[in-house]
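quick one
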Amino acid sequence: GKKSAAPKPDMTVKQFKETVIKHLRSTLGTYEEKASKQAWNQAIAASVNEFIFDGVSRTRKTHAGKDARAVHYLSLEFLMGRLMSNNLQNLGLYELADKAMKELGFELADILEEEPDMALGNGGLGRLAACFIDSMATLALPAIGYGIHYEHGLFRQEFFKGRQVERPDQWREFGSPWEICRPESEQVVKLYGYVETVYENGGSHKVWHPGRTMRAIPWDIPIVGYGGHNVNVLRLWESRADKFFDWDVFNSGGYVDAYTESVQAETVSKVLYPNDETDAGKELRLIQQYFFSAASIADVMRRFRNAHGNDFSKFTALNALQLNDTHPAIAIPELMRVLVDEEGISWAEAWKMTRETFSYTNHTLLPEALEKWPLRMIQHVLPRHMEIIFEINARFLKDEVETKWPGNDGIKRKLSIIEEANGQMVRMGNLSVVGSHAVNGVAQIHSDLVKKDLFPEMNELWPGKFLNVTNGITPRRWMKACNPRLSTLIEKHVDADWPRYLEKLTALKPLADDSKFQKEYMAVKHANKEDFVKVIKELTDVDVSADAIFDVQIKRLHEYKRQHLNLLYIMALYRRLLINPDYDMHPRVFIFGAKAAPGYYLAKEIIFAINKVAEKVNNDPRIKDKIKVVFLPNYRVSLAEKLIPAADVSQQISLAGKEASGTGNMKLALNGAITLGTLDGANIEIAEEAGEENVVIFGMDVDEVVETREQGYNPGHYYQNNEELKAVLDWLDSDFFTPGEPGLLSAVKHNLVDHDPYMVLADYQSYSDAQSKIDALYRDKKAWARAAIINTASLAKFNSDRSIQDYADTIWNLKPIKAAAK
Ligand code: 26M
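structure w/ 26M:
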């Protein structure tokens, strides 16, 4: 059957047109002859909101009536991208809107370009949260996402003379049509001050006298599930100065400058920290974490009290709280504070409730990315929370660690939430594990390493607490919406509800050897590439051919992700062509997209080096356009949506053991790119699903990495013994790519030859060989088409609906509740 999961909307093209024009006039205050594309965009959004708001209310009423168990997904980041096309798709309105706009004389796709990305995240972790809330809504799970309403999302990237320049992101400059302010649900968040012990009736309790309070204002973004039945919300908190005077009890002289205080309060939700690893001890970052955690917990408590008063017997049955990394871990002592200090619940009872409620997802093993806060800072900003953390730690060490390993101070030192070395630090990972009933990694190998390398003793203490939930991506955004050509082709062969049940794509497998289907599939890829040729021209002024291999590496810039391995190979190919102009290779376009953290020196040097090599290669007539190198500025969700459908090769070349999962690897493979990757993160599972013959694997695996390191890794050895590798590294020292300025690219060379922390040189030869395999495979057109089709047909496991179903079953114990129909 070809049944459709998305309902046919009860609206005609004519009615949709009328609604848009109504909003153009009455919401936007303009009219057809005068309206800008931006105004049309907003008018369409307002029209779509007529459907969405109704869905929000229906879903809310359903949950309220049922006293439903719900999950609260706490994340400092939600990398939403644009919302219009996704909302139209999920409501089943896309084609209708497309027709309506055509009749009004516009291309819908063109008008969608007016929408700024909602870039409230850095990369993988933030985009995962966005895919997950889409899936939670689609699966009709009672769920709410909690985060920060940043005024400025991730910086906009420009290149100036090949170097990254950061510019502020302005996603809300003209307001966003998708958000609803909910002043009635405002919360108060306290900071600083001191703790008083009050003795009373033979007992005592603690009273926190905060030094400052601020307001948390919620903005709700509706999240439309596929099919439009269920609409959840993403609740983002904005910080504001207190209505009253901000009064520091310790600093009564400070009141003169009240404006400074209000500026400070409003600073909290001003800007997203542009790092994707830890940013050592910035007080504002800690306050961001606490601000949104406390506001969210207060929101959960308000909703609970409205239904149950002060009877907390059902609290754990009705609430799950998921920590997206340790960033919101301060929510653990915050819940304890509320239960013990405000509700008068005993410590033992409150701790039981807290542990049953929280679960924690780990996203990295990189030691430098594991969050630690100076104890003094937490004591200063959150004095009561520091006391609570001490108490949690003391009981943990005494009741659990001591019982299991009597008298073993070494293990106590290792498991303690407080690190005693180099000034006391609070280990947020340990706090998260101790305070949660479940801890999960994001791909099988990563979850294994979380147990084996990161928390081995915790795993012994609580076998069964550590789980795997392999990441996923929403096929609605990452296929249906971004790749309409492939979706249309797919729909000729599989049920129309494939965006919900991705395993239906296995019906394509028998077609992998069908030459007619192969041609159609590759024609789609070619058309997508033709479209992207224009994007490349527009953004970089580089001319590329859609007949070349589009070889893509898109992800944050990081040494462990090894964009410089890719660069070394590009230089080697270029050198081969200069040595032998007839060097046999299929033309290739190397495409990069990556932002570097503004303070990450070497990452910025790698961007500069790629841009300099690109400039030279792209303008060298001797190589007859066999290689082009394109570094797309300002890589972001909306650019990924254009590039991924056009990709032939997906570079996933991290050092084995370092990339927790990766999710770009899933998006690219689903859209028919062949993975060129190491045995790392979810690459391993992609190879399992698609078959090893349909991916190209290279390099050391995790065990070989360990072995190489134990033998005393010496990058100089590879440099000295590989003629081509030595030549390209030395090239970086010359002025070949930076005429008249030798040494500008030396930092990259010397880092590799002298340190090479991510073993780029050790994997170089294997990578180069794997690239030759890619070249050979691409030239066998049928073999390539077959492999690409099998990839598309085999990726059902990476549907984020499957990930969320796993969370619901194994961690949240959560059942769907379908919202009432209209
Ligand atoms: C920390 C401190 C200050 C400012 C920012 C941070 C911070 C922000 C983001 C730290 C880490 C952040 O994200 C890490 C991340 O994106 N990890 C990726 O998570 C993906 C989803 O699970 C995985 O697929 C990737 O492999 C993993 O690198």
